[in-house]
Amino acid sequence: MKKRKSQSRLSQLGAKQTKAVASDLDLKSSFEIAHIINTEDAKVAVAVKTALPQIGKAIDLIADAIAQGGRLIYVGAGTSGRMSGKSLNESSKNMTWL
Fold first, then answer.
1. Using CA atoms, how far apart are residues 20 and 82, in angstroms rounded to an integer?
2. Each residue of 53-69: pLDDT tens digit?
3. How far is CA 69 from the centre of its chain?
4. Taking the complete model, does pTM exceed 0.90, yes or no?
5. C-beta of residue 34 within 8 angstroms of C-beta of residue 22
6. Could you tell me the residue ranges of all domains in the chain?
7. Alpha helix locations (H) across 1-98?
């Protein structure tokens, strides 16, 4: 079976890791914890902005596939699974849970 390009990159992805800045949170002040969260959250907008061309292409491909009778499948575990379930629940009443 031929490997897809995306499958060959899976081995390059790392697992979740603890950030050094978030170590010893129990010893930090409430302000320090809020600052850490805010600093980390700010990185998300930069990452999304960088990926906008790929996100736009993905949206177009998904919309085209759905228009041709295809499906969008949400997959997640833990927090990401709960968030994708919440997103799916709020997105449309014509979506179907499998």
1. 26
2. 999 999 999 999 989 99
3. 25
4. no
5. no
6. 28-67, 73-98
7. 5-9, 30-50, 52-67, 78-91
